[in-house]
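Technical annex, item 7. During the second reporting period the consortium partners agreed on a shared format for inverse folding records so that results from different sites could be compared directly. Each record opens with the tokenized structure and is followed by the designed sequence. A conforming record, contributed by the partner at site C, is shown below for reference.
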């Protein structure tokens, strides 16, 4: 691991010479020695083309640090239990109950003040208090730690920027060295810090773009062996087989991702009939057709199949992950599918679960909703719409035959999770890039100056789920409406739905207001919609670096009425 750290230092030396536009200010507060952590953390940000400005606080002086870190982007706190009470644990254990309660209350008060001071930080990372070093006979110490951790998790619910990290879940005993604590004042080995960064990286980058599509090969990826040569009955994928169990576990995790809304596709050089026969005959093959959105099982080059999948799903390649056992295939895919993320099945199959775990971390499966569970159904219905479309010469005739309805949803707690998810994940038709977690959405719904419109989309093929969102800020004293959020899921592109929603808003506010203002903010993926407002009679009033502010005069009464065939239903 020392060689890894030397490599990290060399990389940092090279990367720091480059000039990156973005800087992230980070404060680190600790009551133990955490040397090496800053360079490993810096390496993570430098590789993301971000300049990290890292400051260590005063040793074991968390409250003072919290005052100094008020204007940081991120604060990371290592308040370790081994040095929690600032005195011998034996003395603490032998105090009377009232004195112990005072110790606990004092720590809680400090924590409250710290989180209050850091409330303008984008992120606070606080490690859950560990019992690793505590003698099991020290019942009172264990009780205090349990109480403090319960308090921390309650604070996490109150403070939107606070994340409690339970590093015991991803650590090994070999990551720690308690015996040398008295000499080094440190309990962590280098291995720990690398693993720690791996597990917090999803929090470190604001508005992190999660992946959406997982494309998997079959031979020596979902099973051990080659279907065409070995035959379905000789493939190893049984959980009882010493080698096959690793493929079984991979299937199980991929299945779990599919259930939670990840778009799973198969891309394999095989005969499709052989694959279907295997699905039918091998009960230990877990992934069924109902879990797969698209299959490309043929002898076409895989990069061509993947580009075809991207076109069918209407998604960018940079939201794709490709898993294969062949280095040749992976290199070919990387050559022609720019920005795709690839993983290779390891030669040492015992390391396969580690690869699968890295893939899992790229997908946002912690916030999955009812919409995610139905995602496979929605996409398969879309493929039927595309087949239906082939029967028409005119796009307008096709759209009218779909009999599209926009169902305006009631504003309640049942839809807040989905609305938040849309603001965080939607990038293509997302005109303003406003991002809101679930707590913020709940607060917006309660505000008198906010109008929130969430629509589900239905047609003759069924329901597409909640796929349209518009949030307006009402400024009555100025008689103006500001469109804070306007986004549309890629599942419902190409049906003039965005036009119909805009016209709905214009007609709603036309009588009592003078103007509607919005902005178009570039995010790297929404460029195809940059003229949407201009095409609908909005005029530019202000421009910034990546933003264009536009205004619609409600006295104009100009509307493109080519989307009026779409009905809006309350």
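Designed sequence (site C submission):
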């Amino acid at each position: 691991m020392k060689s890894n750290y030397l490599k990290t230092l060399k990389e940092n030396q090279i990367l720091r010479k480059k000039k990156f536009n973005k800087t992230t200010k980070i404060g680190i507060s600790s009551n133990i020695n955490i040397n090496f952590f800053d360079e490993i953390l810096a390496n993570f940000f430098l590789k993301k083309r971000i300049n990290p400005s890292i400051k260590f606080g005063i040793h074991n002086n968390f409250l003072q640090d919290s005052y100094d870190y008020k204007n940081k982007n991120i604060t990371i706190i290592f308040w370790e239990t081994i040095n929690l009470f600032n005195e011998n644990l034996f003395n603490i254990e032998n105090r009377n109950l009232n004195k112990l309660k005072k110790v606990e209350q004092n720590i809680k008060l400090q924590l409250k003040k710290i989180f209050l001071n850091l409330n303008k930080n984008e992120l606070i990372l606080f490690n859950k208090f560990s019992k690793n070093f505590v003698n099991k006979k020290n019942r009172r110490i264990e009780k205090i730690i349990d109480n403090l951790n319960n308090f921390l998790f309650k604070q996490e619910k109150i403070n939107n920027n606070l994340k409690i990290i339970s590093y015991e879940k991803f650590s090994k005993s070999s990551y720690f060295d308690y015996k040398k604590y008295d000499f080094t004042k440190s309990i962590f080995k280098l291995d720990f810090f690398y693993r720690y960064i791996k597990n917090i990286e999803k929090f470190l980058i604001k508005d992190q773009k999660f992946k959406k599509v997982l494309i998997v090969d079959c031979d020596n990826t979902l099973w051990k062996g080659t279907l065409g040569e070995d035959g379905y009955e000789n493939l190893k994928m049984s959980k009882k087989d010493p080698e096959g169990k690793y493929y079984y576990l991979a299937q199980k995790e991929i299945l779990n991702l599919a259930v939670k809304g990840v778009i799973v596709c198969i891309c394999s050089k095989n005969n499709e009939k052989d694959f279907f026969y295997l699905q039918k005959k091998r009960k230990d093959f877990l992934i069924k057709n109902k879990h797969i959105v698209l299959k490309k099982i043929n002898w076409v080059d895989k990069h061509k199949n993947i580009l075809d999948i991207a076109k069918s799903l209407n998604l960018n390649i940079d939201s794709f992950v490709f898993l294969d056992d062949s280095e040749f295939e992976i290199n070919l895919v990387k050559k022609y599918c720019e920005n795709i993320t690839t993983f290779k099945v390891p030669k040492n199959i015992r390391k396969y679960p580690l690869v699968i775990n890295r893939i899992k971390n790229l997908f946002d499966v912690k916030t999955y909703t009812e919409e995610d569970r139905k995602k496979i159904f929605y996409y398969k219905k879309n493929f039927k719409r595309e087949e239906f479309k082939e029967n028409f010469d005119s796009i307008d005739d096709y759209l009218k035959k779909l009999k599209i309805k926009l169902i305006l949803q009631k504003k309640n707690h049942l839809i807040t999770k989905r609305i938040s998810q849309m603001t965080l994940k939607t990038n293509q038709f997302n005109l303003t890039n406003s991002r809101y977690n679930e707590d913020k959405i709940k607060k917006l719904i309660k505000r008198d100056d906010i109008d929130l419109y969430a629509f589900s989309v239905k047609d003759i093929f069924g329901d597409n789920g909640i796929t349209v969102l518009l949030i307006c800020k009402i400024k009555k004293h100025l008689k103006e409406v500001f469109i804070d959020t306007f986004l549309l899921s890629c599942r419902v592109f190409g049906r003039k739905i965005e036009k119909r929603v805009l016209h709905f808003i214009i007609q709603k506010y036309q009588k009592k207001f003078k103007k509607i203002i919005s902005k178009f903010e570039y995010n790297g993926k929404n460029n195809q919609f940059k003229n949407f407002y201009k095409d609908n009679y909005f005029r530019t009033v202000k421009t910034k670096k990546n933003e264009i502010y536009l205004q619609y005069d409600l006295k104009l009464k100009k509307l493109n009425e080519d989307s009026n065939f779409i009905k809006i239903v309350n």
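The chain has a mean pLDDT of 89. Residues 97-117 form the longest helix (21 residues). All partners now use this format for quarterly exchanges.
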